[in-house]
Amino acid sequence: MNIIPLPAFRDNYIWLIHDGRHAAVVDPGDARPVEDFLASQGLTLTAILVTHHHPDHVGGVADLVTRHPVPVFGPATERIAGIDRPLSEGDIVVLDELGLSLSVLDVPGHTAGHIAYYAAAPAPGALFCGDTMFSAGCGRLFEGTAAQMSASLAKFAALPDSTRVYCTHEYTLSNLAFARAAEPVNAARDEYARRCEALRAENRPTLPSTIALEKAVNPFLRCGEDSVIATLAERSGSRPADAVASLAALRAWKDVF
Ligand code: ZN
Ligand code: FE
Fold this sequence. Notes:
Blueprint: E1 2-8, E2 12-18, E3 22-26, H1 31-41, E4 44-49, H2 55-58, H3 61-67, E5 72-75, E6 85-87, E7 92-95, E8 100-106, E9 115-119, E10 126-130, E11 133-134, E12 137-138, H4 146-157, E13 164-167, H5 172-182, H6 187-201, E14 209-210, H7 211-217, H8 226-236, H9 243-255
Parallel strand pairs: 3-4, 4-5, 5-6, 10-13
Antiparallel strand pairs: 1-2, 2-3, 7-8, 8-9, 9-10, 11-12, 13-14
Helix pairs in contact: 4-9, 5-6
The structure holds zinc ion and fe (iii) ion.
């Protein structure tokens, strides 16, 4: 199984899954890079998966289905033109041609109906998390609460450590700059930042990440750590009451960072 990032717009990745013959795409904000890749590799599109309603994730759906009559999977509770397979937590997407099964997670926070897709097999497993989690960061709370985002991120943190994490934006370096402010001392994070800087210097993606890595470096998965709580306490003059309050404070700070 190959999982390829197709760069789109300024910093989006459209993830394309293929086996050399068949392909599925996740969050095609633009049809052009998808069409180009399908044509250059001689692949047949068999499914479109969508995580949430934002235009940079769905903008290419209409064009793609005009040329490829494939099922379009997406969140049941968001109004998205073209979706004919509405999904929510517990649903399983079976992509027969690719021999792939993905389970659906409800992960509200960034948007109210945001979903994520998790494939346990083939090893090491894959998570398509949309704009809910980025490497070293999380999505803005446009429609949801800190409590929802906290619960959504906890679902990701509960997945196997080796799971590859396919985020939809290349925000890693700017997130790491914030992570350094939120948690000044974190050797694993510093090591990861050096690797990511080297990748970006060569214009290569920093993604996919892994669950283990995110648990080690991502301040939004580390809201309960003393190191993060101490920084927040120092900024506001009082300790956040719990992990949700900690995430709320961290997210509000990141919004203006
Ligand atoms: Zn979004
Ligand atoms: Fe986005």
